[in-house]
Amino acid sequence: MRWLIAVAFLSACAGPAPRASTPKPWGFAGQDFVVAADHPAASEAGVRMLAAGGNAVDAAAATSLALSVVRPQSAGLGGGGFMLLTLAGKKPVFVDYRETAPGAAEPAAYLGADGRPVPGKTEAGPWAVGVPGQLRGIPVLLAKLGTKTLAEALVPAIELAEKGFPVDKVLHAAMLDMAGRIAAAAEPRRYDEISRIFLKDGRPYAAGEVLFQPDLAAALRRLASEGAEKFYLGAFSDAVLKVAGAEAGGPMTREDLDGYALSERRPLSGTYRGRTVLSAPPPSSGGACVLQILGTMEGFSPKRLRRPEGTALLVESMKHAFADRARLLGDPDVHPEVEENAAAMLAPRHIRELRRKVGVGRTAAPETYGVQSLPDDGGTTHYSILDAQGNAIAATETINLYFGSLLVAPGLGIVLNNQMDDFAISTTAANAFGLRQSELNLVGPGRKPLSSMSPTIILERGSPTAALGGSGGPLIITGTVQSILNAVDGGMAPDEAVAAPRVHHQWSPDVVRFDAEVPAETRALLLKRGHRLEPFAGESAVQMVTRQGGELRGGSDPRKGGRPDGR
Ligand code: GLY
Description:
By secondary structure, the protein is α+β, with helices and mostly antiparallel strands. Glycine binds next to loops.
């Protein structure tokens, strides 16, 4: 059904779609508050806080904690994330609780005798794990800006872990992927713990089978009773060190864990057709890319963007944004010039130049755009919240690839991230595409790897009217942009905006990925302009909420099976 909508924005002749009156099964309409997460139980967890008088921060904490149970392949206490908040009467703030590299994570540790990155070392096992930020993110924010206790916010998550929940086809597919990674691993026995928890007699749970997580339930109960700091420094750190520290041949130390602290940053800000758009600053590339693509597109009329040519212009602007990303962005705490680089990506002169370049017709060879490549990944989760007090939250959290490093904190049932895979390991060794990677994102002690996460909030006359973002590695950026274009230029409600077919180009590899429902005429034009086309293999999933007048709307991307909730 979602594909009928698609044609409304991407086809040649349709005008802006009328705002839908009845939400789709993956949509919501109400008046007081709305939460859109990529699992229905996580949206419900947030709504429980709001219905009990809590605010958007309380809802974010409960949603995040529930996601750690029902989306264990994507996020959780062994990972990290970014949260963008516009709270009524306060300055917008971007909170960074992304993982950092352990102190021993020097590039040489990841290179083989041939000077090339050791295959898989950043993907699975102890060297793949970044110092998790989640437990020093969500509980800290809740204590500072929420009204509920951590124990209250944990109630839905504990119930889901204890009573179990039916595995859906998204989790089933992630389990299948995990089983394949373990079968191909050099030391499969290292991953016995994750197999014990997430495989049933060695096979993925079928969709509909109930997954119980007693270890995680006990860990969450302990977190509720001990409090975040005691739990983090004690049981959690002890368990992480067992599988990612010296005992396991890994780099993680107690000092790495003790030293983790969240960072507050200023969001990047841009405009789109009279609206203010706030999004993620470095160490995410998300905001710079989203705002650059929107800025480029703003130079063309909505009518022109609705034609097949509009998709070609969009694809070309994606290529430029991703080439700039690879060349210019990294950890601003290590490379202060990264902040200037992000500003340069959004400078009016650069945007004007990009508008000229994307309009020239035939696409150009990748080396014309830049000289670096970027890593690929596919896990991650996102939730968006609007509450009755006018607060808005967009948060994206991740353990990177599905089931992260394949390591679980023993006895706690907490999956540990493989965020180290978002770093460049070498600036001299060419990668599989014959391209070199940027020094600005080179792995190093205490650094944060470059991210694509793009939590975004749109303001009109100073008030939040939309919050959105997604999962899916680099596809997050293009999924977020197209959902904004669908809503602002296409007049779509969020359930329509997130469901419409999308295209994606990340500059390297030099290929346009597309949903099968992208019109044939559009695909023909892209081919004529010299693009190579491939159907999507994996997709982004966008969660979006909006406020229009007195009405709140939510849309959870049907690609990942979420459903918004609210009142
Ligand atoms: N690991 C997903 C991202 O940060 O982009």
